[in-house]
């Protein structure tokens, strides 16, 4: 990598390396979110089906809305993560790409 490329890359890379295996689904934050933060949502969904008066059709509609909203957020954030990884960190994020950033700088590749 030339000196000019290294100088241009410094504001983007900041010298940080990849997370080396800690990215992915089962981390501490995942357990905290699904095990603690979402408890009110679990109670709400269960109450749709076990409480009185019961309306299964409305309960299933609510569950489908929750699944749709969650899928929209997860898929959107996945796409955004891939775009940010390619533009600012030189490659696909884990587990799609290799561990850590690559030596190429795609955002400044047209200069060299």
Report on the structure:
With 112 residues, the chain is mainly α. The protein has a domain of 73 residues. It is 60% helix and 0% strand. It has 4 helices and no strands. The protein is elongated. The chain starts with a helix and ends in a 23-residue tail after the last helix. The mean pLDDT is 76.
* Form type: elongated
Query: Can you count the helices?
Result: 4
Instruction: Give me the strand/helix succession.
Output: HHHH
**Residue windows where pLDDT falls under 50 for at least 5 positions:** none
State mean pLDDT (0 to 100 scale): 76
- Main sheet makeup: none
Cα radius of gyration in angstroms: 21 Å
Helix % is 55-70%
Number of strands: 0
Alpha-beta content class: mainly alpha
Beta-strand content estimate: under 5%
Q: Termini distance? A: 10 Å
Keywords: Membrane, Transmembrane, Transmembrane helix
Fold topology:
Layout: H1 3-13, H2 28-37, H3 39-50, H4 56-89
Top keywords for this entry?
single chain, 112 residues, mainly alpha, 4 helices, 60% helix, elongated, membrane, transmembrane, transmembrane helix
Provide a brief overview of the structure.
The protein is mostly helical. The chain contains four helices and no strands. Keywords: Membrane, Transmembrane, Transmembrane helix.
